[in-house]
């Protein structure tokens, strides 16, 4: 009766199977056990995985923190084109109105209780109406004759210094308005400004007088100038 024993040997990674067949009693070497051995080729030793051994594990460099990286040298600045300057905005302020052309009336003879109205065309003496609505009146008193503005018309009268030549702007900016001016205090060529209550400007030039009988005046008028 034959018995078979299978012995599997594993040594150093090599496997051998040995089959021993024994007969009854002793046999010589030629009848010794028939050995059938099958040996498989040694398997290649697996390399340790990258995660197996610390010594063979590839060292990974930590990613640098961008917040601590030194900034590289900056390149040349990109030239920028300056925007075209905006055109100056048109002034919103209205232009100053031009003074109207003046009209001159010469050698006006003023007698007692006669008045002038700058709105008249032409400007000429008118007998006093008793309403005091005139722009300028010539009145005679026992102590002399005077020129005075109307009291109800809103007109005003200012005397310019002797030798000073007036104009529309000088009259509009005149100060020292008077309620009357004595004729005897005037010199030939001296000027007065009359501003009417209706917006007209008059420059009155005194040319002389004959006592209290009359006074001669030149009047230049800028209508609707104020």
TrEMBL record:
Q: Where is the composition biased (Low complexity)?
A: 36-57, 89-101
Signal peptide from the UniProt entry: 1-16
Q: Determine the domain of life of the protein's source.
A: Bacteria
The UniProt keyword set, sorted, is: Signal
Residues of the region (Disordered) are: 25-101
Its protein name is Serine/threonine protein kinase
